[in-house]
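Comment thread on ticket #2218

A.B. wrote:
> Attaching the input chain for the structure job we discussed in standup.
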Amino acid sequence: MTAPTRTLTDLIGNTPLVHLKSLSRPGVDLYAKLEGQNPGGSVKDRAARSMLEGALGRGEITPETRLIEPTSGNTGIALAMLARQYGLNLELVMPANATAERVKTMRAYGATVTLTPTEVGMEGAIDYARAKVAGGGYWMFNQFGNPDNPRAHFESTGPEIWRDTGGAVTHFVSSMGTTGTIMGVSRYLKAQNPAVQIVGVQPTEGSSIPGIRRWPKEYLPTIFEPERVDQVVDVSQEDATAMTRRLARDEAVFAGMSSGGAVTAATRVAAGLASGVIVVIVCDRGDRYLSSDIFEG
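C.D. wrote:
> Ran it. Output below, let me know if you need it in another format.
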């Protein structure tokens, strides 16, 4: 008998859905979709594979193409992990205050990492990459405007949630960064049941939560369609941090701060329900943040 041949990309998706016992209550169940179980450690593996395979399939890139992409971390890691699987070379651009784990992981996968000044934030990283493309010789995936990003979640994340809840999901909660996850899942779940409520999460004014953005209008991802989100919940940095620590302590779910923000929003939604099945995206793993102070409280 010949053993089946599986590649790294075959391991992306079909992540577990775990009941959050301490945060659920009679009649209202909270489930965490553990995207840290993807091989690259985050939900961004899905979008990275979709964008890479889409660009290669359409002939937009070849192994000779100089690729560049601005990232806050997880998309960059996913692209770095997969790029070499396809024989591609990649430069990633991110703010200098990114955690050391993220930078070292990207470099370990063979990507070139360029750090832009912290004070110009993610917008500065985007501007740097755009300038390189405008100058010629570079191609950018543009995760903020690439339809292959939400398509990945329409084709995989959404169907998995519907399948694993037996169609019982009533609310879906996701942090909003590129907005690819929430756009794709919303499109799928609403097609199955228009009554499913889609809840987006963004930081309060002045809060810094890695992976969640409150975008200035001129940088708002072009893949974002506001009509696909029924409710937006603002979460503070303090509340996101506290919930991230609680998830590790009480649920043994070791995740990053954006997941703490998403679960905070999910508990607020749950507080207003008499019954429901809430699914929240836990987008990555906590070991990506150990050099920060998130787990020191």
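A.B. wrote:
> Thanks. Noting for the ticket: The beta strands are 17-19, 28-34, 66-70, 89-95, 112-116, 139-140, 171-175, 197-203, 231-235, 276-282.
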